[in-house]
Task: inverse folding
């Protein structure tokens, strides 16, 4: 219901914005055309006034008054009056710098005439006129409105996206914490039963070996519950040796891979190089990547390779496999919640891994390279 309402709201906002933009453009163009028509008539009136009064040496007060009114009506319209041969006669509202040479002035006037509209006043005269600053601003105003409306719409849609993402995050966090809570009670009960079994079979080495294996699995289950309980909370980071964590995760997975798959760890990180990490969450990430690599083999023989390197300020871990690989367009998509290429699974492993590495450890995780039929390499980068 949430997705439907949000999608419908986004579409409605987009339609309203487009209608407002379209209406603004049409109305602004209508006003611009009206103003342009008035400016054309005003320029023609000015040219006729120059024609009628220009050659008359004696202008009475009334004629002067009318001429001033005409000049005032065209006070912002640039115009040039020429004779039939195109020679300059007079101008209005043209701005030039002081003391400009006459030759340069004539050149500028000639360039302006090329960009202006032209009206035939009579057989002897033409008037060239341009748009007033008000008309120019009016023509550009709707485009400014389009930009503002687009920014507004973008901000609104971004807000919806962020709100949806936050709600999804709350759902995942709630699910993780509830899972941890539900696991806690039976795990505690199993630990108590293990104490009873240990006391009962302490004199039987074979039975004790089985009890220890069971105990190890229960501790493993408890560790998983603790991992889930940390989702949504800021985990505690401690300086740890990366090689130890990688070997621990690799050792756990080797027992579950079978003889067809070989897992190699190439650690090139110095022992004194420490990384601020949460061991439980980071091991979870490595295990997720190793499980994905194992699934990519699809039951066939292959190799998984962990390579750990360091630079001046960061540690780099590459996890490669010789599995089925993936096309380039899936490099980002594999980290989206719910995306999976498996027949079984929720598609949360890589999404949670990305959250753990990037949000909790301020690092990066991405598909470094992949080729269909040849394998995939995931890369993790962590700050020292």
Result:
């Amino acid at each position: 219901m949430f997705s439907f309402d949000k999608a419908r709201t986004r579409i409605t906002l987009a339609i309203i914005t487009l209608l407002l933009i379209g209406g603004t453009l049409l109305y602004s163009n209508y006003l611009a055309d009206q103003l342009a028509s008035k400016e054309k008539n005003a320029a023609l009136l000015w040219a006729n006034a120059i024609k009628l009064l220009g050659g008359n040496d004696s202008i009475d007060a009334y004629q002067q008054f009318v001429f001033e009114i005409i000049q005032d009506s065209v006070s912002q319209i640039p115009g040039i009056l020429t004779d039939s041969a195109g020679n300059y006669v007079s101008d209005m509202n043209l701005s030039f710098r002081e003391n400009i040479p006459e030759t340069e002035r004539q050149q500028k006037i000639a360039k302006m005439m090329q960009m202006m509209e032209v009206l035939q006043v009579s057989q002897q005269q033409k008037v060239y006129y341009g748009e007033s600053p008000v008309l120019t601003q009016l023509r550009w105003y709707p485009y400014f409105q389009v930009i503002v409306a687009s920014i507004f719409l973008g901000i609104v849609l971004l807000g919806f996206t962020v709100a949806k993402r936050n709600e999804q995050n709350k759902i995942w966090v709630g699910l993780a914490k509830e899972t941890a809570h539900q696991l806690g009670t039976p795990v505690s009960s199993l630990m108590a039963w293990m104490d009873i079994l240990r006391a009962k079979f302490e004199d039987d080495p074979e039975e004790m070996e089985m009890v220890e294996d069971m105990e190890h699995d229960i501790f493993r289950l408890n560790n998983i519950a603790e991992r889930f309980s940390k989702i949504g909370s800021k985990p505690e980071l401690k300086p740890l040796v990366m090689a130890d964590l990688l070997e621990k995760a690799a050792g756990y997975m080797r027992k579950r891979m079978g003889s067809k798959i070989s897992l190699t760890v190439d650690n090139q990180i110095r022992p004194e190089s420490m990384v601020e990490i949460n061991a439980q969450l980071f091991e979870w990430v490595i295990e997720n990547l190793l499980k994905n690599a194992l699934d990519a083999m699809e039951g066939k023989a292959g190799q998984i390779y962990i390579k750990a390197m360091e630079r001046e300020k960061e540690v780099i871990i590459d996890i490669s496999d010789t599995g089925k690989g993936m096309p380039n367009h899936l490099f980002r998509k594999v980290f989206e919640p719910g995306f999976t290429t498996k027949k079984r699974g929720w598609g949360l492993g890589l999404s949670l891994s990305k959250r753990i590495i990037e949000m909790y450890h301020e690092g990066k995780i991405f598909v470094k390279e992949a080729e269909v039929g040849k394998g995939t390499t995931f890369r993790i980068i962590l700050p020292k």
Notes: The two ends are 44 Å apart (CA to CA). The chain has three domains: 2-130, 139-230, 238-383.
